[in-house]
Design brief:
Length: 171
């Protein structure tokens, strides 16, 4: 159907939708989305390195289909049960952070970063304790529904229960 917003593709091909009205009026800043962007940017180079370790001569194996694909056809995917959104939610809970609290800034390149380097480093360490990364075909990764925390009993559950999935790289 007709859209009431604009969309851009980022350098990875992800679609980013935005409303020019919200941009002009300066309303509806989604602090949770900015926090998630800062988290993603914090571990971006770590994820790239994990993906590189899983590749051989520019080719990798999709864990879902078993197909050998080129690097640009593959994404590094966070394995269940700790998909990236779950790791972010666990970090928010473990740090007792209200997701609507502004904790980010844009750097000189326009990337969303944490204002506090200590918070940035704590997220990186939290991510490394929980994240297992595998390669999957980009088309499968883009179509997967994102999991959310199923009302985790406590934030410590996320820290204490490391994934036992048969994934390829654990930080």
């Amino acid at each position: 159907g007709p859209s009431r917003c604009f969309a851009l593709r980022d350098f990875k091909g992800s679609l980013i939708e935005f409303s020019y009205r919200k941009c002009v009026r300066g309303k509806d800043v989604n602090q949770r989305a900015l926090f998630a962007s800062a988290c993603r940017n914090t571990v971006k180079s770590d994820i790239f390195q994990a993906k590189s370790r899983l590749m051989k001569n520019g080719v990798g194996l999709c864990e879902i289909t078993g197909q050998q694909l080129l690097c640009e056809e593959l994404d590094a995917d966070h394995c269940d049960p700790y998909q990236f959104s779950v790791i972010i939610e666990g970090f928010l809970r473990s740090e007792n952070i209200d997701a609507q609290t502004p904790l980010t800034k844009r750097d000189g390149n326009g990337l969303v970063q944490f204002e506090d380097d200590g918070l940035k480093e704590r997220f990186r360490q939290f991510h490394h304790r929980l994240a297992d990364v595998r390669l999957i075909a980009r088309k499968h990764n883009r179509s997967r529904s994102r999991l959310t925390i199923d009302r985790a009993k406590s934030p410590l559950d996320l820290v204490s229960q490391l994934s036992t999935e048969s994934c390829r790289v654990h930080f």
